Amino acid sequence: MENVRFFVLGAVVAQVGEERILLGRRQERCLIGLLLLDCNRLVPAERLADLLWDGCPPAGARAAMLRLMTFYVQAVSRASAIATANAKLAAEQAGPDVPLPALPDPTSAMAWLDDELPNIVAVVKHAADHGPYAPTWQISRCLTHYFWIRRSLPPWRAINEAALAAAHKADQPDAIAHSLNALAVTTWTTSDLRRARSLFEEALALNGRLGREAAQASNHTNLGSLCRQTGQLTAALAHTKTAIRLGRRHARPLTVANALLCLGSLHRDLGALFSATKTVSQALTAYRDLGSTDGQVSSLNELASIRCELGH
What we know:
By secondary structure, the protein is mainly alpha-helical.
């Protein structure tokens, strides 16, 4: 991808290679110029409004911000779908009212998310502070796979914390439960295991009060893996077996596959190598049926470790 250069003396233009491109209407060029002057720094929306409209933003300014948030919700969702090669979901995100970026393949989708990440964080934080609140947890959900690949921990944590705060302000229990689980995963990734477990348990309890057993299955899977990591094998077994039972009851094959892999690893930890082989093989079959490359790789690695211990 060629570098883009901007020029702000005279007409505000962008240059890609040898081609110069005029940028939109006067207000849009002013906005780009203001952002360029604060390059690599977060610019609050209120400051932009003051600068663009000399402290008196028109009534349409809030509507413009809503349109911007709608764009990012749909664009992030579509980019995430393409990045994960989910063609069906990608087609669903091509809404007629919002022009979305052209992203022909997973590589371009990931590159777009990389480039836009500072803007996405700023939009989510603004929404958490000023509303509307729903875009915060909508964007958080969409970015789960992206962050799992990129491991960009500061923005990942910032988005999930903003989503949780917004869900509390909006008093949306479902969104609170999801955001608790998402923040727990981020916290776990930063090795803050005590807080991660507390957040998972809070999400599990809330999903229980809401009667959301399918969501509880995911919470139990995470807690099973976390307890295994901290050496609490009895608790890990209980959580993992509960996850498999609830996942099967509510037809959540990915949750069941994840829990089976964790259970197989627990059998290996306990020395039950033949049970471990059988359980991990079941997980591998489930991942193949789902088309999950990551799951297949993890299962094959676990099977290789088991067979080494068996002397094969």
